[in-house]
Design goal:
Order of helices and strands: HHHHHHHHEE
Radius of gyration: 18 Å
Number of domains: 2
Structural class: mainly alpha
CATH class of the largest domain: Mainly Alpha
Shape: elongated
Strand content: under 5%
Number of helices: 8
Length: 218
Amino acid sequence: MSGEADPRDPRDDAALLRAHAAGDPTAFTEIVRRHRDRLWAVALRTLGDREEAADALQDALLSAYRAAAGFRGDSAVTTWLHRIVVNACLDRARRRQARRTVPLPELDPLPTPAVDSDTALAVRDALARLPAEQRAALVLVDLQGYPVAEAASILGVAEGTVKSRCSRGRARLAVLLGHLRNPAPGGDVSSQSGGNVNQSGGNTKPAGGARVGREDDA
């Protein structure tokens, strides 16, 4: 995750990428091994479809493999990888939207305390209905736990734009999940429009009043 040395290979991510660019046949495989789980989670939650996510991740890793020599070290290798994966996902999401298809989300159970299955499915379905840019921002900030600044670097936009997309996405989720305003005991879904989507995928919580930026994120 952090790019620090691993007991199985003491080189950090940047050194591995340089070695790959120089012809080391194992270096890129090690980078993928370190980061594939989180890259897969981002792809799956952004696209909401297992096959689409697998294809997007494969395309992204192939692009990263080929583009390694051009990596300038302006960001962490993991940030660079996430940017490529998110861009691949957004490209697929836009093409899918242009074809007017709406596939059902197929997400793995999230590795956090379980919530009512109907509630979890409702939240995941609502997340899949958001515009791709808003969904990507929420996946990075609320589900993957990235700071806004790092999410902005991954998405290639200003921090205010990330806050805007998250704020609008949370507001849309609150509308889509309005039928869950009075959950049964044990459910934990808030009707507040400024809430965060937490790791369980089944509740919202106050977001701390993130400002809505000026960029129009439809």
